[in-house]
Structure formats: C-alpha cells, structure tokens
Amino acid sequence: MSAHCHDHACSSSNARELARDPGWRRVLWIALIANAAMFGVELWAGWQAESAALLADAIDFAGDAINYGLSLAVLGLAAIWASRVAWLKGWMMGLYGLSVLAYAGRLAWVGSTPEPATMGVIGVLALVVNVAVALLLYRYRGGDANAQSVWLCSRNDAIGNAMVVLAALGVFGTGTAWPDLIVATVMAGLGVSAAVRVVGQARHELKAHAQAA
C-alpha cells in the first residue's frame, strides 16, 4: 500500500483491505494489551521516581491503548468512520503533547530530582515493548490516516523510550532534573508534530468522502 495515497478511492480501498486482513486485527489486539499493561507499570514507576519523562510516557501508553481500541472498533465500518477516528486520534496526540509540556513546567518549578535507576530500568522495558509493537505495525505504515496514526504512535513511542533511557543517564551523571525535563519536552514536540500530520491527512480524507457523497 502506498504511503502517498491521497484520493478517496485509494483511502477507501486501503480501509477495506485492512478490515479483511486478520493480521491487522491481531496486531492491534497485541498493541492494545501491551500498551495498557505498560501504562500501569510506567504510571507507578513515574510517581515513585518523580520523573516527568516516565509519566509522560505513561500518559502516552494510555492514549495509544485507547487509539488501538478505536482502530479495532472501526474495522469493517465505512471508510469515513476510519477517517473520523483518525481525526479524533490526531487531536488526542496533540493534547497529550500539550499536557506533557504543562507537567514538565510544573516539575521544573517545584525543582524535584527524579530517581535515575528506576527511570533506566522502566525505560528499557518500555523500549523493548514498543520496538516489538513497531515492528509488527511496520508493514501497515502506508495505509489510510487511521493506520498511519497507529504506526506514528508506535514509532514515536520507541523514540521516546530511547530518550527516557538517555535522560536517566543524564540525571545520574548531572544530579539534576534537567535531562528528564528536556526529554519530556522533546517527547511532547513529537506528539504535537505527529498530531498535525494525522489531522491533516484525516481532513483530506474527510473532504474527499464529502465530495464523493
């Protein structure tokens, strides 16, 4: 499937192909379960370690679990519903990015320093999980806006996890919270940039659906 699929017929065809592909449904279920489990792990670890980066990643895991659930819900429905869900998911990704920025600002104001050992261990675990999910989703990255948003979420998560591990090393080396806060801010930027891309493609698809109606 082409990553440059921009017309109504192509997006509709992609949606139908995915709905008939049992591998796509299976991958979505695996991703949903993995993200829901990691949300619980990182939420607990983030509070224990007082790490903005870990808590940002925990929120991201929760949002992704919801995203995968929504993607499962629209399988087999008309293509316009997949585009509508992609539009909603794009806004969720953007709000996630803004919420991370706000939380990082709060921690910077308070001045607490996170626990680097917990950050490192949980960051590595999250990276392993997200790389595995990203590899499963890789073949579907060129689908419609809905499938593309799922791939972008997984890709950004893996990048974010690697950055959390680097932040843990930075906190350990400097004894300050700034590496943690910087990584949290960069992760927020990834979320916002991905949101802009997904919302833009979803709007294009919704416009095409309206013109074809």
Automatic annotation (TrEMBL):
Membrane topology: Multi-pass membrane protein
Subcellular location: Membrane
InterPro entries: Cation_efflux_TM, Cation_efflux_TMD_sf
Keywords (A to Z) from UniProt: Membrane, Transmembrane, Transmembrane helix
Pfam annotation, one family: Cation_efflux
Domain Cation efflux protein transmembrane: 28-78
Gene Ontology molecular function: monoatomic cation transmembrane transporter activity
Keyword match Transmembrane: yes
One GO location term (cellular component): membrane
Keyword Acyltransferase: no
Superkingdom to which the source organism belongs: Bacteria
TM helices/strands, residue ranges: 27-45, 65-82, 94-111, 117-138, 158-175, 181-199
The protein's name in its UniProt record: Cation transporter
